[in-house]
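Reopening this ticket.

The earlier resolution said the output was attached, but the attachment link was broken on my side. Pasting everything inline this time so it's all in one place.
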Amino acid sequence: MKFERSAGVVLYRDSPEGQREYLLLDYGSHWDYPKGHVEAGEDDHAAARRELHEETGITQITIDEHFAHEIDYFFRNRTGGLIRKTVQFFLASTQEQAVTLSHEHVGYAWLTDAEATKRLSFANARAILKAATMHLAFRNR
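Inline output:
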């Protein structure tokens, strides 16, 4: 079995109406957060920032150093080989409005937590969003 490591960002912003919105990307077959492989010489933070920039064009973020959420899952590659993947997610905010999608995606949306929960394709992604919203609620008390 092969192992892969990726890193990603649960990115949020405050909308002009004052609502917190989370960025989700449409990968064509599913909706998820910006994420990608950790390259040689990178740590998880650097990989998450690089992937966010490559996939969305967004560079100006503030990472919440008190939140990190790791998931593990298995999938089969194109040749049928089993891969165990670990993804480290960070929570970050931005004030940037413009999104420039990479070729890997067919769309994006800024969504409230309720809307994002409905749109996310996978249960583990919904669990990350729940943990992030709870963290932000507790932090802002």
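Reporter confirms the inline version is readable. The helical segments are 44-56, 113-119, 123-139. The first strand starts at residue 2 and ends at 14.
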